Structure formats: C-alpha cells, structure tokens
Amino acid sequence: MHLRFCRIIAALLGFLPLAWLQADNAADSESRLRETVSFLASDDLQGRGVGSPGIDKAADFLAQQFTKLGLRTDLFNGTPFQEFEITLASELGPEKTNRLSFVGPNGDSGHAKPIELKLTESFTPLAIGASAKIDLPLVFAGFGITAKDLKRGDDKFTYDDYAKIDAKGKAVIIIRKEPQQKDKNSPFDGDKNSQYAPFVRKIENTVEHGAAAIIFVNDAAELTGKREENTKLLKASLDKLSELREELSKTSLSDEAFQKAATAVSKAADDAAELSKALASGGDSLLPFAGAGTTASNSKLPIFFATRAAIDQLLAAAGQKDLATLERGIDADLTPRSAELNGWRATGESNVIEKKATVKNVVAVLDGEGPLANETIVIGAHYDHLGFGGDGSLAPWTTDIHNGADDNASGTATLLEVAHRLATSGKKPNRRIVFIAFTGEEKGLYGSAHYTRQPRFPLENTIAMFNLDMVGRLTDDKFAVYGTGTAKEFDPLVEKLCEQFGFKLTKHAGGFGPSDHHSFYAKQIPVLHLFTGTHSDYHRPSDDTEKLNIPGMRRVADFLVDVVKATDSTDARPTYVEIRKMESISGPAEGDRPSFGSMPAYPNPAKDGVLLEAVMENTAADKAGIKGGDVLLKFGDHKVTAIEEFDAALRQHKPGDKVKVTVRRGTEIIEAEATLGRIR
C-alpha cells in the first residue's frame, strides 16, 4: 500500500462530509435521481431493449444530460456515441429461398420420384443454422451422439452413432434427445436429459464428423408428450365450448351480450379445431424456426427440422425401417442403427437472415488538469434492459414491458448524478473522468467488451473502473461492493467509507463477475462494482420505479463520489492485484459438475476458437499452464469455435478427468493436459 495514498485517505475521511457531501443538498440530489430513473423506466421507453426505439430514446436522453453538464461529448465523429453492430436474432427468408427435397437414385424405371417437403408443414430451417444451398448425399445418424465411458453396471462402454457411417460432406438426419429417455437406469443420466441431448452438442459432434448439413426430427417421446398435452387441452377446450354454447342458447341475452357470446363460441370452436388437427398429427409438430435458439450457433452449417412423416417416407423409399422401429431397437440394446441412404440426396436451400442492429455506448468526459490529466478513471453503468421480455426474462410467459427500474435505470441515474456532482464541484479533477453508459450488458457485456477492445482512451493509462448495476433497492443498509481486493488501496477505502455512510458492507474481493466491470478487470484494471442486492422483481415486468429506494440511491452516489475523489486525489495509481476468482451475485454454483477454471470472452471475438479472457487461480486450466489471452482450439476430442461448444465439450466430463487441451498463444500452438476440478 502506498504510504502517501494512505495519508491522503486518512486526511480526507475527516472532512469529507463537510467539504464534499454538502455541495448539493439531499433533496436536490434525490429529485434529480427520481426524475431520471422515472424517465428511463417509463413505459415510453418500452424496456430499453437492445435494437429498439426505446433504447435509442434513452441514449439521446443520456447524451443531452451529459451535454447539459458541460462534459465533453465530441468523442466519436463529433458525438458521444460509440457505435458498433451486433446480431440480435435471425429471421426466415422468403419462401422461395427455403426449400428441401429428397431425391432418389436412378433405377430400372428411371429416376425415383423426389420427395418434396413443404415449408412450415413438413420442414423448416432453424435459426441456429447458416444460409446455404445444398445438394448432398444423405445419411441417417440415429441420435447423433458420440458418448465415451458410459456405464452400464460396472462396465464401461462407448455409444457412437457415427462409428459405422461416413458423414463427411453429407446431410445428416438426427433424432432429438437421446435413447432410453424414460428409463431411470439409462446410462444417459437416467430419465433426465444428459449433456448429449442439447442441440448445440449434437451440432458440435456433427461438425466434428465433417457433415455439411443437419436435418433434425422429433423423437418418439416428444410425440407421446405432445399427444398427452393436446388430449388434455382438447378436452378442456371442448368443455369450454360446451359452456359457451349453453350461454349462447339463453333467450334472455341482450343483443350486445349475444354478440359477445357468439364471438367467444366461434373462437373456442377454432381453438378446438386446431387442437383436433394437432392431435390427429400424432403430436409430430415442427419445431418453430427459433425453437432451438435465435441466432446461429454454428455459422458453417445449414440446419433444418423435418416431420417424422417426411423422414419415414424417405427411409421407406431407401429400404430402411421407420423411425419408431429404429428407436425401439436402439432403446432395447443401445446399439446404433445408423445407415447411409445410398443414392439418396438432400437438395434445397436454407435462407436465414441475421437481424443486426447498430447499438451504442454513450460516453462523456470531464477532463483533468495537471500532470496526471492523461490518466483515466472510468465510471460506468449499463442502460439497456429486456424490452418486452424474451431471452433473459424470468417471466417468459408474458410480453409485458420489462421497465428495469432497478436493473439498471437505477445505476444509470446514479451515474448521471455522480457526473453532476463532479462536473459542478467547481474544481477540475487531476485525472480525466470518463462516464460510460454501456449498451448490451443483458446480451452478454457487449458494450463494455467493445469499449475495452476499442478504447477511446488508452487502457494502459486507465487506472480504475467503478461500476453501478442495480443500486436502487437498498434495504436495511445492506450494501455489496465487489472488487475490493483488485487494488491494495481499495479495501481500507471501502471499509472506512461504508462505516462513515452507515452501510452494512458485504465485501467481495474478486473483479470477475456478471456486469461491465468484468471487461475492465480482464484488462488488468482495478475495479469496484456497487450493488444493493437482488429481489423477486429481478428480470420481471414488476421491476418498477415506485419500488426503488431513492434516498438509498443518493447515498450510493455520495459513496461513489468520495471513492472517485479519493482515488483521483493521490499521485499514485491504485495498485492492481490479480484475483483469479469469479464472483456471482447468487453465490457459488453447487453440484458435481466439472470445472476448467477459465473465463471465456463474451462475446467471443475469435473465429477459430474461444478466447479465454482470464484463467482463475489454482484451477485445472491454471495448473495446466493455460493463461488469460490464450485461444482455446480443442478440448479433449472436440474442436471448439463457440462458447456453447466449449460448454458442451466440458459437460461430457466429470471432475477428476484428465483432458488434453490445445490453445494458441500468439502464433504458438500449445498442447497441455488438464485435470478437471469440481464446481462446489
């Protein structure tokens, strides 16, 4: 710890309340906070979803507020907006550009009649796949699983749907899920889905076997479940229809009531008809276009979903047994029934249009004055939220506006309040203070990751980053500060200030965690992350302004102003400390899952692997000599080009397994062996 820094802190703590905290009285501060957060969390901004008009309104508002404070905002082509592009989702292209047919071999009677599949009725492309035209040989690959070291009693064995077929350059038909789904004694994790069941794992395995396209099809258990569900829904629908018809038959109804009842009967009849149609199909419904995910998990491969009826027609024409028979056989003896469909080809096209959006961080600067003016302190908060729900919502059944008052209108409002205090203090700071409202945090730290990769001011001269995320629900004075161990000077400073402000402090030493400070700590910049706790309204439409503790937000602003001024007032930079530990707002994960101990960059910028932004101390990766900045190319037998593939490959193993890993460090290719740890 720097002695001079400590002396300055000790001196400052004696007069901070008089000199700094009275610059604005509490009432004015709380009025500003309430006005800002009420606007950001209003229905007019429609939940500030990334790529929406609402978030653009929020960005314009923040830019105006920064400008009114006299901050410098001409940072990116004369604006405060650091723009970049992200993929939000995918949508299906025009019908004529999405086609699929099965074309048979030439025989004695000429070319076999093609099996034409109809879009949205017998097939659909999936959003997780790529756009491509295909004309490929066909192969049936069962469940598309390669599983080593399965256990049946005391015996170990391998189940491999690809063992006796060549999938290279072919279109591969794959059944969803896995064998023996209803068997509690199944080696595939009993009657629960194992790591081999998810789409991403099947796709990864298919890519490793060199396939050029995938056609997924429902498993038999899915059909059984759908039939049972549709039977119950149809019964309920028919009961409702009977009630409504009885109501309609009453002679005492007014014209208005009769019309209302007639409309209800008509709708109920339509619903019952649709359910009857679904039941007649045997439950073999197509997975929706976005049913396996909204964006491509592997951009190299077109991926389709077909009905079992269409695949059964193909199998029969190719001289194979139907899907039900094949599945029963696999379930009986766990022996793959894969087969090359000689002479048959898949022809067609998948047109998946990526929906991209230009998004923007909003950045403003309070310039410093003096010999340290070229150094930077960053203060940040993300201003995006979930819009109308969808991915990330903990109320997925609703499309109500998720206003995100606490998450993170509260942090953004407090960011503006801190900017107001510092900009109107009458004294320039010693260092440049950069205020950043980040976008895309809810999508995966997109905004902060982009800034740290393309910083407006050099990161080597950025001495600290302070982050505000969910600071609007201070309860019983409980206040969490993350990153207290990321600089030698932070712990005593935070302790003293929390005591002074009456906070009941919970300290978390590490700088890696689920908010934008993570991106900066990965660049070896000391960080503090302020947080007042989670609650039952988190990521739900009920996270509204009236539930916020505005005086609590003002106290958090008071605290952060003093942290910033204390950090700025010393000539010495905070002394960076490496803590390779991941902090979580919900505590450590539990269970018997394997741990590698790395922190992938999210979003992942590497094209041929997964960038490991950091490696946690004393973990499997650390002991194997893997370092932050390495690009993971291969994990065990699996190439990894996406974070989902890395996760799927990791889940194939158990704690204690030894795994060979290949990384690229600069231009050097390094192979190592890691002994996996356990998540506890």
Give an overview in words.
- This protein is α+β, with helices and mostly antiparallel strands.
- 31% of the residues lie in helices and 24% in strands.
- It is built from 16 helices and 28 strands.
- The strands form six sheets. It has an eight-stranded mixed sheet, sandwiched between helices.
- The chain is globular and about 85 Å long.
- The N terminus is likely disordered.
SSE topology:
Layout: H1 3-19, H2 26-40, H3 53-68, E1 81-92, E2 99-103, E3 106-107, E4 110-111, E5 115-117, E6 123-125, E7 132-140, E8 146-152, E9 155-160, E10 171-175, H4 199-208, E11 213-217, H5 220-248, H6 255-280, E12 303-306, H7 308-317, H8 323-333, E13 339-350, E14 352-366, E15 376-382, H9 405-423, E16 432-438, H10 441-444, H11 446-453, E17 462-468, E18 478-482, H12 490-501, E19 504-508, H13 517-521, E20 527-531, H14 550-568, E21 594-595, E22 598-600, E23 610-615, H15 620-623, E24 631-635, E25 638-639, H16 643-650, E26 658-665, E27 668-675, E28 677-678
Helix pairs in contact: 2-9, 2-14, 5-6, 9-14, 12-14
Question: What key phrases describe this protein's structure?
Answer:
680 residues, eight-stranded mixed sheet, disordered N terminus, alpha+beta, 16 helices
